[in-house]
Amino acid sequence: MSHTAPQPRSGPLSGIRVLDFSRILSGPYASMILADLGAEVIKLEPIEKGDETRNFPPFVNGMSHYYIALNRSKKSVALDLKSPEGVQIAKELAAQSDIVLENFRPGVMDRLGLGYDVLKALNPALIYCSITGFGRNSPHGDKPAFDIVAQALSGVMSVNREPGQAPNKLGLPLGDMAGSIFSLFGVLAALHERNATGEGRHVEIAMLDSLIAMQGYLSQIYFVTGDSPQPVGTQHPSIVPYGSFPTQDGHVIVACLTERFWHNFARSLDRADLIDDPRFGQYQARLANRDALEPIIHERMTRDSTEYWLDRLTEFDVPNAPILSIGEALSQEHVAAHDLIETVDHPQIGSLRMVRTPILFDGEGSACAEAPSTLGQDTDEVLRDKLGYSAEQIAALQRKGAVS
Fold first, then answer.
1. Per residue in 318-358, pLDDT tens?
2. Residues near 301 by Cβ (< 8 Å), separated by ≥ 6?
3. Which of 243, 270, 350, 392 has its CA 20 to 30 A from that of 73?
């Protein structure tokens, strides 16, 4: 494949160029991880307002928290894709890229003149990744798709609640995140294949498909029993005891996934007799007698404090955890020990903290991040250095409103 060499970032994807048409979350998260892994990411944004998330409050010095969270280490090019000049620039960049990433509704890129067939003809080695809500062949295909829509249609909201309570969405935007995560699997597999064949692929990911694929054992419960799993709150549909248990002053998570952990837990409760009780001796028995066992656990645990139980459960080697707020989670010793937060300097904001990618290679994390770009910050550089445009050509495009 012949194209102008991108400015390398350190990491296993150094030398790979990504042309990113995506916006909001499903797509930008994937391209950010590719950037973290060393790829050069050129993000194309609408001229006037950029990625929609630039306008989502709260803000710090005029920049949205949402945009900051998903767009580090990318170059921002402000481009009018409804102008012939803007489309031509996008084509020229695609011809020099390894990966194109987009998350418009099906058919939008074709209508812009930037569909897979067009860009593949320009660059047969191109890996073209499309993330949509429902895919091309879905009866929902023309509907707008957002995280909560995918969560509702995937079944996950039906179980994400306490029994008898209203359905609730996950606190994480997992519908969007799932689309991004599976797109990374597909893109990296296609890159590996291209090393052998020289040919690219059209990778297609639907957010709804991705969430359904992440149901894990929940779908298998339905296939095996014919019954949909019912909401159990923090508890487990088939493992007992498991979940959040009340203490004198709060709650503690306990997870007895093995018989050894159940025996340890019973002993920590000073109730070793429960181990030999036929109602609680085996997985199936505890599941059938959950309503009898849990009041016994609650009665004992509410006599002592959360701190007491965290220490005692750890002493007895029972899987346990406190329930932390987001702020507490980011401040815990584990996060510092794993160096999960880094600080970058931003020209508009100043010092800016961000959560790093968790992938380690030979014990080392990703290269230091670059601050999220302001809208169009890199337009001139990309047109000049990647496409060879002169200052006069760039100025003419700016006058036409094709770039900014």
1. 999 999 999 999 999 999 999 999 999 998 889 999 999 99
2. 245, 246, 247, 252, 269, 309
3. 392
Spatial CA neighbour of 116 closest among 39, 23, 52, 21: 21
Give catalytic status of residue 202 as yes or no: no
Q: Do 185 and 124 form a contact (C-beta atoms < 8 A)?
A: no
Contact indicator for 234, 240 with CB cutoff of 8 Å: no
Amino acid at 70: L
CA distances to 34, 166, 209, 218, 300 from 212, in Å: 24, 21, 5, 10, 39
> Which member of 202, 236, 251, 263 is catalytic?
236
- Specify the pTM: 0.93
**CA separation for the pair 245, 331 (Å, rounded):** 24
DSSP 163-211: TTSPP---SS-HHHHHHHHHHHHHHHHHHHHHHHH----EEEEEHHHHH
Domain assignment of residue 367, yes or no: yes
Distance CA 255, CA 240 (A): 8
Number of domains in the chain: 2
Phi, psi for residue 77 in degrees, rounded to 5: -115, 120
Model confidence over 72-102: pLDDT tens digits? 999 999 999 999 999 999 999 999 999 999 9
How many CA atoms does the CB half-sphere of 367 hold within 13 Å? 19
**Can you give the residue range of the structural domain that contains 83?**
17-214+339-400
- Count of C-beta atoms within a 10 Å radius of residue 16: 23
Q: Which amino acid would we find at residue 31?
A: S
The sign of the CA dihedral 397, 398, 402, 404 is positive
